[in-house]
Amino acid sequence: MAEPPQGVQREFSLARLTTIRTGGPAEFFARAGSIEQLERLLAWAAGEGLEVGVVGSGSNLLIADAGVRGLVLKLDQELSTIELDGIAGDKLACGGGARLPAVSAAAARAALGGIEFGVSIPGTVGGAVRMNANAYGGALADVLEWVDVVSAGGTERRTPGQLGLEYRRSNLKPGEVVGRALFKLTPADDQQVKATLAELRRRRKQAQPAGIKTFGSTFKNPDDPRAEGRTAGQLLDGAGCRGMRVGGAGFSEKHANFVENHGDATTADVIELMAQGRAAVKQQLGVELEPEVQTLGPVRWPEDWPRR
Ligand SMILES: Cc1cc2nc3c(=O)[nH]c(=O)nc-3n(C[C@H](O)[C@H](O)[C@H](O)COP(=O)(O)OP(=O)(O)OC[C@H]3O[C@@H](n4cnc5c(N)ncnc54)[C@H](O)[C@@H]3O)c2cc1C
C-alpha cells in the first residue's frame, strides 16, 4: 500500500462524530480542508481500492459496530465556510461541511430569505443535499443554484435538476462528495427573517425531544394508502412502539419516530429496535416502513427490508 497522504489517521473512533453516538472506528479517517486536498484523498483511496464514506454532522447516520473499512472523510476549514457571494449580494457560497443552521443564521444577518427552514435541520450542507433534507415546507432545490461534486475523477458542477432529488434521496453515489454549494436567496427584512428563525426553533422545541442522542427520523413517512396519511411517527405510536426499548436504545416518549440512545446503545440495538417497530407496524396496520437513516460500514439490515 502507498503511504497514506498527510493527516490520514488509522482506527479513528467515529461514534462521537454522530448524534446517536454508536458504532466503531474507521480503518482510515481524514479531514479535508480544501477541494484540492479532497481530490488528493479520493485519488489515493481509488488507487488503493478503498471504499469511501463521508460523515457530515452525523445527524442521520448509523455506523456499524464493527467499524468501517476504507476511508471516511469529514469536511472542515475552507470546506465549512459560509460567504456572501454574487454582485447583488444575494447568494451564499458554502462549503459542503458548513452547518445548515449556521447558513440560515448567516442568511438572516445578511437580510436574505429562502433558507429559514435550515435552522431546524442539524446537518451539513453536503448531508442535506445527499438526503434532500427539508422542513416546514422549505425545499433545498428552490434555493440551490449548484453544488461541486468531488470524486476520484475530479470536480463536477451539478444543478439541482442534475441531482435527482426526490423525497430523502439524491443520485449521489458512494465516493461522490459535495464539496461546495451556492445558494441563491431573496433580499428580505432581516428582522422578519430572524423572527421566522425564532418561531421555527420554538415549534421544533415543542414537537421534538431536545438534548438527547438521536438521529432524527428513523423511518420515512410512507407513501402507502393504507397509512391513510399518517406519518411514520403516528404509525409507530399507533402500533404501541412509543417508549419501546432494546438494550440501550428506545423509541422516544416524545416523538415515536426518533430513536434515543439511553447511554450504552450499540448500532445492533438500534437495528433490532427498528426491526421490532417495523414488524409491529406491518402486523397491526399493514404498512411497511422504509428506513430513512443512512449507514456506514457493515450494518446488518434484516433480509426483507427495502434496499436503498
Ligand atoms: C433532532 C434532529 C432533527 C432533524 N430534523 C430534520 C428535518 O426536519 N428534516 C430533515 O430532512 N432531516 C432532519 N434530520 C436529519 C438530518 O439532520 C438530515 O438528514 C441532514 O441532512 C443530515 O446531514 P448530516 O450532515 O448530518 O449528514 P450525515 O448524517 O453525516 O450523513 C447522512 C448521509 O449523507 C452523506 N453525506 C454527508 N455529507 C456529505 C457530503 N459532503 N457529500 C456527500 N454525501 C454526504 C453521508 O455519507 C450519509 O450517507 C434531523 C436530525 C435530528 C438529529
Describe the structure.
Helix content is 26%, strand content 25%. It is an alpha+beta fold. The protein folds into 3 domains: 69 residues, Uridine Diphospho-n-acetylenolpyruvylglucosamine Reductase, domain 2 (2-Layer Sandwich); 128 residues, Uridine Diphospho-n-acetylenolpyruvylglucosamine Reductase, domain 3, CATH 3.30.465; 72 residues, Uridine Diphospho-n-acetylenolpyruvylglucosamine Reductase, domain 1 (Alpha-Beta Complex). A 5-stranded antiparallel sheet has the order 6-7-13-11-12. Helix 2 packs antiparallel against helix 5. The longest helix is centred in the C-terminal third of the chain and has 19 residues. It starts with 8 loop residues before the first strand and ends in a 12-residue tail after the last strand. Flavin-adenine dinucleotide binds next to strand 3, helix 3, strand 9 and strand 13.
- Any idea what the shape is? globular
CATH topology of the largest domain: Uridine Diphospho-n-acetylenolpyruvylglucosamine Reductase, domain 3
Main β-sheet: number of strands, strand sense, barrel status?
5 strands, antiparallel
Q: Could you say what the CATH architecture of the largest domain is?
A: 2-Layer Sandwich
Low-confidence stretches: none
Spatial arrangement of strands, main beta sheet:
6-7-13-11-12
In the CATH scheme, the class of the largest domain would be Alpha Beta
Domain unit count: 3
Strand content: 15-25%
Terminal-residue CA separation: 32 Å
For the CA atoms, what is the radius of gyration? 20 Å
Helix content: 25-40%
Order of helices and strands: EEHEEEEEHEHEEHEEEEHHEEEHE
Q: What oligomeric state do these chains adopt?
A: single chain
Q: What is the averaged pLDDT score?
A: 95
Q: Name the hetero compounds present.
A: flavin-adenine dinucleotide
